[in-house]
Amino acid sequence: MSFPKVLLTVGFISLFHSAFSAAQHRSYLRITSQEFTTLPLDIVIQAVGSLFAVMWGVMCIAGNLREIQAAAELNNIAWETQMNVPSFYMFNHRLRAMESSYIPTSGKGDLENLE
């Protein structure tokens, strides 16, 4: 095993032990009817030290980061087909009114007069 893996394992065990010690301290205070103010310094130091050991071990084990290419699937598509979006096709627009053979359809008011 490598050193970061050992450090990570020891850090997790130490972090679990500090949490267990904190719970035991709270139950001791309840049994003796004392008020809880703060945790003892040795538990706090153990928790913070083991937290840093776990973080350092995880950073060493994780390895190097790789770049995420958001447009990786678009690299194989030709430029002409990228802009071809059929859902944006529109055939009912005002340019049709400029045609010489255009006959306007009945409006909303004309539809009410139909029998």
TrEMBL record:
Location (main, coarse): endoplasmic reticulum
Q: Name one GO cellular component term.
A: plasma membrane
Keywords linked to the UniProt accession: Endoplasmic reticulum, Endosome, Golgi apparatus, Magnesium, Membrane, Signal, Transmembrane, Transmembrane helix, Transport
Q: Has keyword Transmembrane?
A: yes
What residue range is the signal peptide?
1-23
- This protein's record includes keyword Ribosomal protein: no
Taxonomy, superkingdom: Eukaryota
Write down a Pfam family by its short name: MMgT
InterPro entries per UniProt: MMgT
| Residue stretches spanning the membrane | 45-65
Subcellular locations according to the entry: Endoplasmic reticulum membrane; Golgi apparatus membrane; Early endosome membrane
GO MF annotation terms: inorganic cation transmembrane transporter activity
Q: How does it sit in the membrane?
A: Multi-pass membrane protein
Q: Which family does it belong to?
A: Belongs to the membrane magnesium transporter (TC 1.A.67) family.
Function as written in the Swiss-Prot or TrEMBL entry = Part of the endoplasmic reticulum membrane protein complex (EMC) that enables the energy-independent insertion into endoplasmic reticulum membranes of newly synthesized membrane proteins. May be involved in Mg(2+) transport.
Q: How does it assemble?
A: Component of the ER membrane protein complex (EMC).
Descriptive protein name: Membrane magnesium transporter
Specify the species: Leptosia nina
